[in-house]
Design brief:
The protein is an alpha/beta fold. Helices cover 27% and strands 17% of the residues. It is built from 4 helices and 5 strands.
């Protein structure tokens, strides 16, 4: 169906945590309600169902995260087809042990 199967690079949540000091562009593709329950500091909420409308800079590396890694993989694939440099965060927020914004009262 696609002709070329471009493998999407993946990193672990630990590797992403080590990158946070570089202020990476992190797209959280979960629904807004999930995002509000807790997200990686500095991440932008851009739900998977709207990913086709994403208008970032194609030269910026995008780290894509969701709850488990499945939606982010689909989002990363769609973004890669549009020319973005994407990295899927394997395991998503289920594996994230770093600082979380929101969600806590």
């Amino acid at each position: 169906m696609f002709g070329l199967f471009n493998r999407i690079p993946t990193i672990t949540t630990k590797q992403l945590e080590a990158e946070l000091n570089k202020k990476p562009t992190i797209l959280d593709v979960r629904m807004p309600g999930e995002y509000r329950l807790g997200h990686i500091p500095g991440s932008k909420n851009f739900p998977l169902n709207k990913i086709e409308q994403y208008k970032g800079k194609t030269e910026d590396k995008l780290y894509v995260v969701c709850q488990s890694g499945m939606r982010s993989k689909r989002a990363a694939s769609a973004l890669q087809k549009k020319g973005f440099d994407v990295v899927n965060v394997r395991g998503g927020m289920n594996q994230w042990n770093g600082t979380v914004r929101g969600g806590k009262l």
